[in-house]
Amino acid sequence: MEERILYNLLQVAVVMGFAPLAEGVLNRLKEIVQSKRGPSIFQPYRDIWKLLHKDEVVSEESTWLFRATPYVAFVAPVFVTLLIPVLTRYPLFFAFMGDMLGGGFVLALGGFFVALAAVDTGNPYGPMGASRTRMVGFLAEPVFIIVFFTVSFVAGSTIPYIVQTVWLSPFSNFFAPSHVLTMLAFFMLILAEDARIPVDSPSGHFELAMIDKSKGLEYSGRGAAIMKWAGAMKLFVLLCIFLNVLVTPWGLASTTALGDVLLAIPLVLLKIFLFLVALVVIESSLAKLRLFRITEFLSAAFVTSVVALTTSASGL
Amino acid sequence: MTDPIASYILHLNAMAGGLFLLAAFAIVATRQMLSCVRWFVGQSLLLAASATAIGIGLHSWHLGAVAVITVFTKAIAMPWLLRRTVRRELYRRREISQVLNIPTSLLVAAALTLLAYAIVYPVTAMAAAPFVDINLSVGLAGLFLGAYTVAVRREAVSQLLGLLAMENGAFFAAVSIAPDLPFIAELTVAFDVPVTTLVIGLLTRRIHERVGGTSVGLLAALRER
Fold it and tell me: What is the residue-level pLDDT of chain B in tens, covering all 225 positions?
């Protein structure tokens, strides 16, 4: 029992420790595709370190919300990490505290606070980004729900540790249409939820066109560092859910031996690296959609998930 | 259906079915004419894949022939013919106008799919054959979505694609229900596709020469010279 608590905390440490690395690798890969050299993959760590040592400036007009938000946004992914399989195949100590829907709610709480804080400061760009994020969010919500329905319908459970084994027993389940289509819909969701290119341009610096990044414009110093770290962790957690629960539940530790669990860390990082390569290909080859075309993108995701649900309801 | 290979075939066929349905949705919702054609080609390849899978599963060489004919007529001959006859429309026009906007059409399409499943469900509950449940429902849904495409598009070429998508859907259902369909029937249907494409292509060309566009939606009213 002690080791299950220990591994659970190890998961949190892995997510906290490697999330900025994933972001650094992503940025570097993108620069390489554009035939530039790009910053070191450790640049996000340096940024966070630098920001942590700078003074923080907080607007006089803002309330406690603005100050509390970085911590809420930081704690939300950490909390979700306790619920999902990052390194192990068997449920850990906190696994039954909440299911996938619960994890979704916790992540949404973080997003909600970030949106409120963006409105709180009175900076004109913050509320704009916040309301756009809400627009994307409420379009993404039905897709989330249907994906969860499909998954729980197929697996008979909403606990991620139970779901991941269903796709592989027997292995032919992996090719079930509900699985393939659910993966596709969830992938589109990740693009929308993490403000990736067909929906939003994460590296854009033009305030009027920003969706996600404009919410953090007012933060400086420690607040900015924590927000940056929280954003990296949110992506990492989403990738862990996507890769470890839905796509490739291989390479996770299946025994409680410490060596096995430690071996799972590089394997998970390898999977995430492969996913980042695919993400870079998508981000480099597609153009950002116009704001009102986002509804089309997300309704395509919705229809994909509905097809997944109907094919799974028809028995396969 | 307990041995592993049969279960693989069943799932691969089901996956082809799921992607087939997705391609049908894409034909409803894609804006660009050229990518619409590409989705149609993809859908035809998935039909061929499903026919092959069922052919292996049921040991029927007919279905292998169906797959070959489908690939040849729909994935090779049809796009080639379209390029020959309506090249301008295919490459110059980027966006196709629709009667309904795309999110609405997708929702209607999803409702049609559910309707297809609801209609087929009582039938498949009785049928004991292994591939019927997925193929019949997906095929019927493909048929509905093709019909919907014909109804909602205002462009002659994309209406043609809708028509052919309907035919794809009918075939998708047919390969599971009647795997031993007489070969001559399949040949006839296969021959139909290029002919339809050619006729509609030439007609479109004539319309284009006369009216200066292929937006069939504009041709609703009569006009005297």
Answer: 456 777 788 888 888 888 999 999 999 888 888 888 899 999 999 999 998 988 888 887 888 888 888 898 888 888 888 888 777 766 766 666 777 888 889 889 999 998 988 888 888 777 666 778 788 888 999 999 999 998 888 777 888 888 889 989 988 888 888 777 666 677 777 777 777 887 877 777 777 777 766 666 666 666 665
B174 Rama class: left (phi>0) / alpha (psi -120 to 50) / beta:
alpha
In a domain, B79, yes or no: yes
One-letter-per-residue 3-state SS of B62-101: HHHHHHHHHHHHHHHHHHHHHHHHCHHHHHHCCECCECCC
Mark yes or no for CB contact A314/B134 under 8 Å.
yes
Sequential DSSP letters for A25-82: HHHHHHHHHTT-----TTHHHHHHHHHHTS-----TT--HHHHHHHHHHHHHHHHHHH
B116 and B140 Cβ atoms separated by less than 8 Å: yes
The interface pTM score, or ipTM, of the predicted complex is 0.79
Partner A contacted by B115 (CB < 8 A): no
Identify whether B225 is part of a domain: no
Task: Tell whether B15 is covered by a domain.
Answer: yes
Give dist(CA A206, CA A30) in Å, integer.
19
The one-letter code for the residue type at B125 is A
Separation CA A140–CA A153 (nearest Å): 20
Please tell me the distance in Å from B7's CA to the nearest CA on chain A: 7
Query: In this structure, are residues A249 and A89 in contact, taking their beta carbons and an 8 Å threshold?
Result: yes
Q: Is residue B109 part of a domain?
A: yes
The number of domains in chain B is: 1
Domain residues for the domain of B208 are 4-220
Question: Could you give the CA distance from residue A2 to residue A166 in angstroms, rounded to a whole number?
Answer: 27
Q: How far is A304 from chain B (nearest CA, A)?
A: 7
Q: 3-class DSSP state for residue A211?
A: coil
Instruction: Name residues whose C-beta falls within 8 Å of residue B55's C-beta, 6 or more positions apart in sequence.
Output: B61, B62, B63, B64, B66, B67, B179
Name the closest residue on chain A to residue B23, using Cα atoms.
Answer: A304
The CA–CA distances, whole Å, from B165 to A304, B61, B168 equal 18, 24, 5
